[in-house]
Amino acid sequence: MAVTEKSILTRVYVVTAFMFLFAIAVLFKLVNIQFAQGDKYKALAMERTEKMFTIAPNRGNLYSDDGSLLATSVSRYTIRFDAVTVSDEDFRQNIVPLSNALSKMLGKPSSHYQKLLRKAKVNKNRYALIARNLDYSEYITVKDFPLFNKGPYKGGLIIDQKTVREHPLGKIAERSVGYENVDDEGYYSGVGLERAYGEYLRGVQGKRLKQKIAKGQWKPIGWENIVEPKDGYDLVSTIDINIQDIAHHALLGQLEHYKADHGCVIVMETETGEVKAISNLGRTEAGKYYERLNYAVGESSEPGSTFKLMSLVAALEDKVIDTSTVIDTEKGRWKIYDRIVKDSKWGGYGKISVGHAFEVSSNTAFAKMIHNNYKNDPEKYVNRLMSMNLNKKLDLPIKGEGEPVIRFPGDKGWSGISLAWMSHGYEVSMTPLQVLTFYNAIANDGEMVKPRLIKEVKEWDQTIRKFDKEVINEAVCSKETAAKVQKLLKNVVEKKYGTGHGLYSPNFSMAGKTGTAQKNYVSKDPDKLKYISSFAGYFPAENPKYSCIVVIHEPDKSVGYYGADVSGPVFKSVAQKVYATSPLVDEVDMEKMKDERLDKSYQRYYAEAQKNYKQVPNVKGMSGMDAISILENLGIEVEVRGNGKVKRQSVSQGENIKNTKKITLELS
């Protein structure tokens, strides 16, 4: 028995000693956690219950050249309710008046909000959704509602703010305006001016403390931010919304008529290089058009006959020909090795001067001119093209500029027929904006200026940075050569035999060159043969103010595909309407001048509009520019208040249009 008692006592001592050591270990650990690692665990606990969130700043505004908004940041607010922080007494006294106020502003019955709030109170919901997507004025109103006016603690009001980007002019210039996104790692992506000048527009992020509540949700703590965000700078672009609107609708109408795949228009101020309009429209499977891609900047393709201007300038500068040099077009067919160069006119033009060959756009004449004069020294021709910057990108801030292609002898793809094919715009590749930049240089007496889409960066009324005219090449050719080709470009439109004569108007002058390039011409399947129709030039012809290019891809061949027919009318429409709307400083009767400039086709446009609309149309929900265009075309004076889409119109739909002289539009 004694042994047994001794054994039990021993075991008790061992267990007691073990528990004593364990207690010491626990105590040591507690002391270690409290003093040695206390800060670490406090921080970890804090991180799990409270966290610092970044606040996106308001992105800077993007304006047109007259101060109209092209893109702006708008704050949107989400209202939530913390039912736990509100006392029962405050809740009982305020639930009905709060629900009535919410009902009046948001449109749902008061009973809906009473039910929602009571349910949140019963369930002790700390993040109940009340309303989304409120604007600033609505947010300010909600803050003063019963109960909510007691603040985030006593009133349970939670405000979540986010910033969204809006385009007040709707779809006009949407692709050129573009967008910018940022991923979780801080990498920026996007297109257009928004991406190109993001460093100015973004601003600096702020910080705010939030507390973790039920269901993994985070609730802001208090009203104040830890670090206030700094808003981005504003940008003033070169875009003229009047010219942009004209270009957009002229292109859209022609694309729809010819059922084309896509197209673009660019209008540039000759002297400064300021881009006044840039419209890019692509076709959906449903046959609708929208700003799908920036074809004007990013799509490099064979320009066709618009490249004849470059070949002619090169030959004149090298003095291998003059405009009076005679070339035999050989019945419109000229064989070189195993290929045949063809003119669009069956039977050709016989023996004609180089100048006349340009005006009628003879492929055979240009192929013979360049091949025969440079075949023994092809590098001379290519070097001349390169000296005119035709092989270089414009180095635009907008991402995705297409690569120009000017092959050099010995490069892959160069062959014995390359000179002949390059002469009239094949085996070379350029974007519409690159082509226009050269035409603009000719209009500018040889000075090539860089296209520019931004005038200045501003903070309120203070200029942070100004973007001035930038000269790429002081002289792509001599003034003598520029004068010669300027005359020929004018003849293309004015002479009855010129390929652009269908665009001629005695009321205003234009100069330019038609272009019709084949796509998929290596295929022997005629169904796969597509066309690119283009027209590039400037106006007025005598003292150019604007240069313009229109490029339309893959028009329906059964409707038409020649550049003069497909793209030319867009050019004329732009030139005509810009003439009619641009102020001219002169001692003349302006109204009479305007009437004279509006030729019969343009007057028919107004007559047709008046015929179609006998009553005032409903323009609610339309973009401001679209609504203004429709109403002004009906002869109604329009007053606009605000920016964005039409929210209200002062004269209701259905009113007699003859009795309506003026309409006021209120935009959201």
TrEMBL record:
Spans traversing the lipid bilayer: 12-31
One Pfam family linked to the record: Transpeptidase
Keyword DNA-binding found: no
Location of the PASTA domain: 610-668
SUPFAM superfamilies linked to this entry: beta-lactamase/transpeptidase-like (SSF56601), Penicillin binding protein dimerisation domain (SSF56519), Penicillin-binding protein 2x (pbp-2x), c-terminal domain (SSF54184)
CDD domains associated with the record: PASTA_Pbp2x-like_2
Compartments, record wording: Membrane
Keywords, alphabetical: Carboxypeptidase, Hydrolase, Membrane, Protease, Transmembrane, Transmembrane helix
PANTHER family: PEPTIDOGLYCAN D,D-TRANSPEPTIDASE (PTHR30627), PEPTIDOGLYCAN D,D-TRANSPEPTIDASE FTSI (PTHR30627:SF1)
Protein name: Transpeptidase family protein
Species name: Zobellia barbeyronii
Taxonomic lineage: Bacteria, Pseudomonadati, Bacteroidota, Flavobacteriia, Flavobacteriales
